[in-house]
Inverse folding.
């Protein structure tokens, strides 16, 4: 079965192009609390979308689901509302799926599920070693619809030099096996367009299929709207990029016997990248 493709944007024109190019989910990212501190010096995506962005994106979507990442569980401050109010707002704004990032405890998960209260799908973004440590208990919580492994923050938590080391040290595989036993859909990481990526997109896609993943985020480099401003060019990038990705998925489905070879290729590639990073 084809992976569900997700793309982060708060622009209605780009959201429409992505949807028309068969991207399954448009991803509005409201998370900002604590993110600048933990990702300081890291070239990562740092958005600060708002409830107004959720409303305007929802208004233009025809078939794609609207995924909203809220902030980690938090209390109200003089500058921002509480988690309860934030979650209420995004559900009222039309979120089909609400994502909880950077949780560390079972109680945070229980609180999040209770706040959503079955009105939208619940997706947990697993990106802390603490959450990994109590995953067996988290899996017992009723009301979780999907899991996603955020390998960027999770690799920082484990003090890795390169985020895709988690593909070669067994971390992602062991988590996927736990999720698979529950029957709850899951995914991990981000992916560039076919033929690109520091760790080639083709290698990552094969791992998604080997590990039974059902979804993936299209990375910033898949179509960098900050680099390209012409909408016709952006449309072409999406159409060609998604078509190439789907074609490669079809190839994977027909040639699943090369997964073992791909694992070895990934291990070799990641090792080379880490060695170069350590030499800097």
């Amino acid at each position: 079965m084809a992976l569900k493709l997700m793309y982060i944007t708060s622009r209605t024109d780009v959201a429409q192009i992505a949807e028309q190019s068969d991207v399954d989910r448009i991803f509005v990212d409201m998370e900002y609390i604590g993110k600048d501190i933990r990702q300081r010096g890291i070239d990562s995506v740092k958005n600060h979308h708002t409830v107004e962005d959720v409303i305007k994106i929802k208004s233009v979507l025809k078939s794609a689901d609207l995924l909203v990442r809220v902030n980690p569980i938090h209390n109200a401050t003089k500058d921002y509302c509480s988690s309860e109010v934030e979650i209420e707002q995004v559900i009222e704004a039309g979120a089909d799926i609400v994502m909880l990032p950077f949780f560390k405890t079972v109680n945070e998960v229980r609180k999040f599920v209770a706040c959503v209260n079955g009105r939208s799908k619940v997706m947990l973004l697993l990106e802390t070693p603490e959450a990994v440590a109590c995953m067996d208990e988290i899996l017992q919580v009723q009301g979780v619809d999907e899991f996603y492994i955020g390998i960027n923050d999770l690799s920082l938590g484990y003090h890795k030099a390169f985020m895709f080391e988690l593909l070669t040290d067994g971390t992602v595989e062991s988590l996927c096996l736990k999720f698979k036993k529950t029957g709850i859909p899951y995914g991990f990481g981000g992916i560039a367009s076919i033929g690109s990526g520091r760790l080639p997109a083709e290698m990552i896609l094969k791992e998604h299929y080997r590990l039974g993943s059902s979804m993936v985020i299209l990375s910033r480099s898949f179509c960098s709207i900050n680099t390209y401003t012409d909408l016709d060019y952006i449309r072409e990038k999406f159409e060609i990029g998604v078509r190439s990705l789907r074609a490669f998925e079809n190839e994977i489905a027909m040639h699943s016997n090369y997964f073992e070879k791909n694992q070895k290729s990934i291990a070799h590639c990641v090792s080379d990248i880490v060695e170069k990073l350590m030499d800097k």
